[in-house]
Amino acid sequence: MSMIRSCEVVVVAMMTLAPRPAAATAPSLVVALDASVGQLPESITTDHAGNIYLSMGTTIGKVSPAGVLSTFAEIPIAAGSFVTGLKFGPDGNLYAGSAGFGPDPAVAFVWQVSPDGVDIEAFATLDPNGFPNDLAFDDEGDLYVTDPFLGLIWKIGADGVPDVWLADPLLEANFAAPYLIVAPFGVDGIAFDRNKDNLYVGNLDRGTIVKIPVSDGEAGTPAVWANDYALLGGVDGIAFDREGTLWCAVNGQDRLVSISRLGVKTTVAQGGLLDAPSSLVFGATPSTLTSLYVSSFAINRVLGTQSGTPHPALSKIVVNRPGEPLP
């Protein structure tokens, strides 16, 4: 093979392996919510019928494909507590975290909610000093739960018994200088890559994305995969697309950021409909696979730590590749 031909082969191979740049439309409104009645969507997920589920205070809301909001479930926790992360499990039930800013009353649980929202049971009881937050399932049906107060990740099997899967300084909050005034938050958003070989988590206070190798369900040595405090400080929910790009809701900066599998970071959108974006989920129906839904939690303006009128909402952007499917 000639030298010129060899170079051509190398160039073509590099072009094939290089990821396509992520592209997205501007955010568009799906449902406007009302902060005055507690409609502050902390986390969202979807089912395969196209409904979007939102954790708001002690309730879980449901937005139909037609954009109609209804109450799906009332979680039996004390007023002033929060339903946090939401994910459907392989068994078809919806799993929901709950948390509060103190250990009394104890509200650090994971709840199991039937597909119709009628049957609600405490699935796992966690450390009351913690703040169970985002959720992710592996292919074995085990549930992983981030705790930004305790700086660790729980693993919960089908029996509902929690174990500390990983505790590490990379997961800990910055107690000396929290990014959000309300409280220090460490490990927060969570997502597996395509083959479930690695678990990625965001550290909200430190503006980092941490990559954790996974082998036979055990955690390897965590390492910082992306580190950009100016761009990612306040990072909350995360979600992968099928080309390995990680999409990040940067709560503290009203910003969406994409990170390619090669580590290239891009601000996709900022401001406008984005008011403390806290959670992301790709659509799961054939017509919504490239729709990335975004919850605007609006909590910073509700608490007055950012100026302006709060505008909680569910919005979406359309991207140029489908999302990584959920269980």
Q: Quickly count the helices.
A: 3
* Poorly predicted parts: 1-16
**Could you spell the SSE succession in H and E letters?**
HEEEEEEEEEEEEEEEEEEHEEEEEEHE
Largest sheet: 5 strands, antiparallel
Pairing-aware structural class of the strands and helices? mainly beta
Please give the structural blueprint:
Elements: H1 3-17, E1 28-32, E2 41-46, E3 52-56, E4 59-63, E5 69-74, E6 82-88, E7 94-99, E8 109-113, E9 120-125, E10 135-137, E11 143-147, E12 152-156, E13 162-167, E14 187-192, E15 198-203, E16 208-215, E17 218-219, E18 223-227, H2 229-232, E19 235-240, E20 246-250, E21 255-259, E22 265-270, E23 277-282, E24 291-296, H3 299-302, E25 313-318
Antiparallel strand pairs: 1-25, 2-3, 3-4, 4-5, 6-7, 7-8, 8-9, 10-11, 11-12, 12-13, 14-15, 15-16, 16-17, 16-18, 19-20, 20-21, 21-22, 23-24, 24-25
